[in-house]
């Protein structure tokens, strides 16, 4: 599976050495797509408004239990092509209320990777 390669800092498209759009493949592409799936707000994707996490509806400015967010992140990750299993691990919440953690992704090719957020 291939996907357009995104810059890890800006989450913007990257050119390859020839000036064309760079492409990611293999486990890296799967992990990048998992990260994208977790970052997407529900309703944000123009062609499929049902994808994404319900950040506006149920997460931001709402009291929510950690297990509920964990389940939503795992469901979003599991829906990505190439993912065999996903497990969300929350590592902390900063003073500015920024949640941190990662999703442990098992790909259908047998690789195990973690995708941070």
From TrEMBL:
Domain of life, per lineage: Bacteria
Protein name as catalogued: Burkholderia phage Bcep781 gp51
Organism: Acetobacter lovaniensis
């Amino acid at each position: 599976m291939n996907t357009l390669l995104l810059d890890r800092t800006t989450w913007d498209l990257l050119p390859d050495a020839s000036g064309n759009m760079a492409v990611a493949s293999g486990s890296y592409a799967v992990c990048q797509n998992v990260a994208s799936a977790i970052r997407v707000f529900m309703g944000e994707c123009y062609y499929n408004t049902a994808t994404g996490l319900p950040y506006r509806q149920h997460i931001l400015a709402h009291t929510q239990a950690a297990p509920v967010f964990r389940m939503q992140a795992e469901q979003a990750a599991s829906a990505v092509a190439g993912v065999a299993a996903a497990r969300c691990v929350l590592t902390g919440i900063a003073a500015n209320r920024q949640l941190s953690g990662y999703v442990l992704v098992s790909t259908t090719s047998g690789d195990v990777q973690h995708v941070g957020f």
